[in-house]
Amino acid sequence: MAGEAGASTGRRCPTRRTGRGQATCDRLRRVAACLFVARGYDGVSLDEIVQAAGGSKTNIYAFYGGKEGLFVAAIEAALGEVLRPLTEADTRGLALEEGLTRLGQALIDALLSPKALALHRTLIGETGRFPRLGAAWYAAGPATSQAAFAGFLARALAAGEDAGRAPGDPSEIAVLARLFHDMVAGDLQQRALFETEPAGVAERAAAVAAAVRAVEALVARRG
Amino acid sequence: MAGEAGASTGRRCPTRRTGRGQATCDRLRRVAACLFVARGYDGVSLDEIVQAAGGSKTNIYAFYGGKEGLFVAAIEAALGEVLRPLTEADTRGLALEEGLTRLGQALIDALLSPKALALHRTLIGETGRFPRLGAAWYAAGPATSQAAFAGFLARALAAGEDAGRAPGDPSEIAVLARLFHDMVAGDLQQRALFETEPAGVAERAAAVAAAVRAVEALVARRG
DNA sequence: TATGAACGATACTGGTCGGTATCATTTCAT
DNA sequence: ATGAAATGATACCGACCAGTATCGTTCATA
């Protein structure tokens, strides 16, 4: 409910923010993001954030309207960074197998990173209290990855060796992208989230390879 | 740390539990399961559980050793029930497509049920505090489903129309089962967990159908 | 039925936390 | 420079909560 708007009572949102104020505001958000991601909403107290970031609780109410506003701002800022390596991967000119393998590796490495796992855990627990954040996570996560896969698939299938075939219905490509995403991420992510140790390099590579082989089989069989 | 053992201090664990006591013990666990699953560990107070279930806080310490013990007992009891319809599904004698479709439907319906979603959300948030529960969830969830798929695949491939082929390496079948599981559950489960409305019947059926088609393509191509 | 253990209700304790109030200090526009 | 606004530090309030203590009531067994 509370964004960056002013608090209901007490200190008003400043109309003329100081340079120092802006720095404190940013510092609070960064520190809060670390702590919230690591230990969840209820696991972190405002006093702890203030102690680690400097400033005072007064700032939190002036800048973010309260604990909930700070949480939303901190998480939203952290969301975009998780899949950065995937969206920035350059796959132009790569053949189907090579490009999918590279994208799949980037995805699984991003998803199994400690930060992504912690963010996932924190967000899923707070989707009830902050529905907007849940939707934002899906958009910045699975939806973004699938779009990246679909973009590459469309190019690779249009320009591939079997270019004589149908160029690939967009919806068919979207399904393919979704299946690939799920085959790469599904099980390894679940295990990383619920068990203690995430999968090692070999297991990740094997999962990606299996998913790539499956997509190739689907492509070869498509009519 | 605390199972059903006695509390560290205060009232000791009774050596001769009364009939009424047993009933209260069960009622506490059932009510606690509902509340914990719905609102998480921190979201429920002992007073609330006691008020809803009858009995008194004293029982919680006598029977379960404290809040953590009650949480573990309640969640563990709830774990086994989620995938009941999947493990009880009878697929003997069914062909590949029909059996996979039935199993896939059972899986997705179980995973998207409100109870399973709430349990998933609660557990994932508490995996840090209760690692044992996270592992138990994976074992009772994905691992169980995959085993069910693998069992059916082994039978179907051995007895199928193309029985003349290799009977199917067990590890190959396990990979196939994992891929099928992930293709059925992955995206729809993510969306249900993070967005507000779970997918409808049509979308579920489409996801299952796509996964079944993919498995058929893989089976046809295997060598 | 008598008796000791198990159980239920309730109040209390020590601690934590979100949010507010207060006041001293710093910043910046004039 | 100067004063009004912004910021920092701190104390405080009310609410909540896990866990304990106490005592009256109920049950099971002998």
TrEMBL record, chains A, B:
The keyword DNA-binding applies. The keyword DNA-binding applies. Coiled coil: none annotated. PROSITE patterns: HTH_TETR_2. Keywords: DNA-binding. Residues 45-64 bind DNA. Residues 22-82 form the HTH tetR-type domain. This is TetR/AcrR family transcriptional regulator. It comes from Ancylobacter oerskovii.
